[in-house]
Amino acid sequence: PGDKSTHQMNAFQLIGMASSLDLSGLFEE
Amino acid sequence: MLQCLEGVRHLCGVLLKCCHIDLKHPKGLEDPEVLARETVFSVSEVEALYELFKKISSAVIDDGLINKEEFQLALFKTSKKESLFADRVFDLFDTKHNGILGFEEFARALSVFHPSAAPDEKINFSFQLYDLKQQGFIERQEVKQMVVATLAESGMNLSDEVIESIIDKTFEEADTKHDGKIDKEEWHNLVQRHPSLLKNMTLQYLKDITTTFPSFVFHSQVADT
C-alpha cells in the first residue's frame, strides 16, 4: 500500500519508492 | 603506375558505395520483422518505437545512437541529474557494452517493460538491476549502496541505524538459505510475496506506442499482419 511507512518497507520497496526509476519519462515530451 | 591509380580509383569507388549504402539504410531499423518476431512488439510497434528512438538519439548528437547523456535527458529532461538507477538501467540496455545504445538494444530491452512481457523476464531484469557487481547474487553491501544512493537522490533522510535495521529485516525475509546473499531463486520468491517490487518494470506507454508515434506509418516498410 502507498501509505506504508518507510520502517515497514523492505529495502527494495524503499529503493523503489525513493528512486527515480520510472522509464515513462522516455515517452513524455 | 597506371595500375596503382586504377587501384586507388577502385578503392574510392568502394568507399563511396559503402557511404551511399549507409545513407540509404541508416543503422537502426534494418529488419523490423526480425525484432517483432524476437520481442513482444508487433512490426508496427517496432516502427513506432523507432520514431521514439530517432527523437531521443538526435537530442545531443544526431548519430542514430543513444548515449548516456541523451538517455538521461529523455528520462529526466535534464542531463545534470545523478541517478544510480538510470546508470544501471542504461548499462543493462547496453548489451554490447560500448557505452551507446543502438536501436536493437533499445527495442529488446524495452520489450521487457511491455505489459505483455513474461513476468519471468521482468523478474530477471530487476534482479540484474540490483546485482550491481553482476556476480549472480545480491549482496547486503549492494543493497545498502542502492538504499543510500536513492535516499540521497530523493532528498529523503533516514539514519544509518534505521537503514541497517531495514536491510536486516529484508535479508531475514529474503535470504532463506542464510548465506548472506539473495540469489535468483530467493529473489523470485521475494517478488512473488511482494509483486509491488516489479511495479516499475511495466510501462503502459508501450501498449499505445503506435498512437503516440503515428508518424511511423509514413516510414513503414512492411505491411503488418
UniProtKB/TrEMBL annotation, chain B:
Belongs to the calcineurin regulatory subunit family. InterPro entries: CNBL1-10, EF-hand-dom_pair, EF_hand_dom. The gene is LOC123447729. This is Calcineurin B-like protein. One of its GO terms (molecular function) is kinase binding. Acts as a calcium sensor. CBL proteins interact with CIPK serine-threonine protein kinases. Binding of a CBL protein to the regulatory NAF domain of a CIPK protein lead to the activation of the kinase in a calcium-dependent manner. Keywords: Calcium, Membrane, Metal-binding, Repeat. The keyword Membrane applies.
